[in-house]
Automatic annotation (TrEMBL):
The chain crosses the membrane at residues 21-42, 77-96, 108-128, 140-161, 173-191. It comes from the Eukaryota. SUPFAM superfamilies: Rhomboid-like. It comes from Plutella xylostella (Diamondback moth). PANTHER family: PLACENTAL PROTEIN 6, TRANSMEMBRANE PROTEIN 115. Residues 306-367 are annotated as: Disordered. It is a multi-pass membrane protein. Signal peptide: none annotated. Pfam families: DUF1751. This is Transmembrane protein 115. Keywords: Membrane, Transmembrane, Transmembrane helix. It is found in: Membrane. Residues 340-353 have a biased composition (Pro residues).
Length: 367
């Protein structure tokens, strides 16, 4: 009851924060948040959960319930998951959507969720093949936006890879490590029974699918595809000690996908070109769209800082004006005695003028 009273007292503050978060977002972001809230209300019915969520055994033949890949994402059964979804989608609308555009943002949303549904189903199909337990096919219900939230962390890593989040005694935590760190936390919470087993599976699926799409397939305004930056390679998700091992494991599959034409080869050469304006240098991992993206992010951060500074200055001036008005009103409400001004001191009189007296010697008497 005490926790409920504390929560009820904080409802106005939470409403204010959510309004500020979703105030300037697009209608698509607001629509996703509203649908997630509705899905949480519907999740109190077990029959609705079975119908709207993805069941691996029913997504496969002969059932082919493909329509569940369009409904599972807005179904959450825990209130804290609803809060995490709304905050994540709101931040995505603030940071990523202005850079990508609404169409690309919705394409990314649909692609990630459909891919998460099928890849998570594949995970449980492999587990069923190894164990032979049918419960992994028909008692598992995949639902929620865990995969999409993982995809958002990958996109933020692409945009702001070196952004510092927290300083810890063990080192600095940046956007490079968020995806893997949260996956480890999800697995640990699943081991403790605090999360369903589908959550880490969906998180891993969203991380892989979003990285593949952003790395190789995302189309940019200049006609290029993907992001070949060195700091966005897959081994960069892992600590520095493990990166050589990850490169050795992923090297053969990547070369196979390159031969099949599904992935672009890694560029290792520097290209020099003569132009009327001088020499143009093209280096691997330094693409024009990456430079433009980082430039837009820097301009956005600068504009936000300037607007914040101007707002603080305006509030300070307004506060000073209010204080002056209060002083004037206070002075007008009290009678202040008026004392006659002291007369100015008179200037000292000028010194008397000296009178010149001609003193002549008396003339001698005549004898």
């Amino acid at each position: 009851m005490a926790a409920l009273r504390v929560f009820s007292r904080n409802i106005p503050y939470l409403r204010q924060q959510f309004s500020a978060l979703l105030g300037n977002t697009s209608p698509s972001v607001k629509f996703i948040c509203v649908v997630v809230v509705i899905g949480y209300i519907l999740s109190f019915s077990d029959d609705v959960v079975k119908v709207l969520s993805v069941t691996p055994g029913y997504l496969l033949p002969p059932s082919f319930q493909f329509w569940s890949t369009f409904t599972f994402w807005f179904l959450e059964i825990h209130f804290w998951e609803v809060i995490v979804d709304i905050v994540s989608v709101g931040l995505c609308g603030k940071l990523i959507e202005p850079l990508w555009g609404r169409l690309e943002m919705m394409r990314f949303f649909v692609l990630i969720n459909i891919g998460v549904a099928f890849l998570t189903t594949f995970y449980y199909l492999v587990i069923f093949a190894c164990t032979g337990q049918t419960s992994y096919l028909f008692d598992i219900h995949v639902h929620g936006l865990a995969g999409y939230i993982a995809a958002i962390t990958v996109a933020v890593k692409q945009i702001l890879p070196d952004h510092l989040l927290v300083k810890t005694p063990l080192g600095k935590l940046t956007n490079r490590s968020v995806s893997l760190l949260l996956l480890i936390i999800a697995i640990a919470m699943w081991g403790l029974g605090a999360l369903e087993g589908t959550y880490p599976c969906m998180w891993a699926s969203g991380t892989i699918i979003s990285w593949v799409y952003l790395r190789f397939w995302q189309r940019h305004s200049n006609g290029s595809y993907g992001d070949s930056a060195e700091n966005f390679s897959f081994d960069n998700f892992f600590p520095t000690v493990l990166q050589p091992v990850i490169r050795g494991i992923l090297g053969p599959p990547h070369r196979l996908l390159v031969r099949l034409g599904l992935c672009a080869p890694s560029q290792r050469r520097v290209h020099l070109a003569l132009s009327p304006g001088g020499v143009t240098i093209s280096m691997p991992g330094v693409e024009p769209q990456d430079m433009e993206r980082r430039r837009q992010i820097a301009l956005k951060a600068l504009s936000e800082r300037l607007s914040k500074t101007s707002e603080q200055t305006r509030q300070k001036n307004l506060s000073s004006k209010v204080n002056m008005d209060a002083v004037r009103k206070s002075a007008g409400s009290h009678v202040i005695p008026q004392f006659p001004a002291e007369p100015a001191p008179r200037p000292p009189p000028p010194p008397p003028e000296a009178t010149l007296i001609d003193i002549a010697e008396p003339s001698p008497r005549q004898s």
